[in-house]
Amino acid sequence: MNDLPQPTGPGRLPEEPVALTPLHRPRRAFVARGEAVLAGMVIWFAFACWHWGITTVTTTLTDGTQLTSNRYFSDRIAGAIGLGVVAALLLVDASRVLLAVRIRSHKPKP
Fold first, then answer.
1. What is d(CA 47, CA 79) in angstroms, rounded to the nearest whole number?
2. Cβ atoms of 55 and 63 closer than 8 Å
3. Which residues face 66 on adjacent strands?
4. Alpha-carbon span 98 to 96, nearest angstrom
5. Where exactly are the structural domains of the chain?
6. Can you tell me the distance from the alpha carbon of 48 to that of 89, in angstroms, rounded to the nearest whole number?
7. DSSP E strands: which ranges in 1-110?
8. Longest Cα pair distance anywhere in the chain, in angstroms?
């Protein structure tokens, strides 16, 4: 609950917002394209990290039996997951930049 006195009188209200630039700015397309390309490179590196994080270990016992197992390196797997999250955020931001819609405030009618 706000018990502080509110400013009243002329000149105390917030000024009108500065006119916004047009919604369509060609620079946005370049930024979105750059983010999409960067997301693609990050995804490629994430797959590489995942591949580096798994190693197949084969052990041969004295009776000739071969045991095959996979060894997982958690730091590389976690890095791959983190890079996937970064790529997803880049793609979300690229789509936000391209699909940005400005909501106009409705002034109350007298």
1. 10
2. no
3. 60
4. 5
5. 26-98
6. 19
7. 54-60, 66-72
8. 95
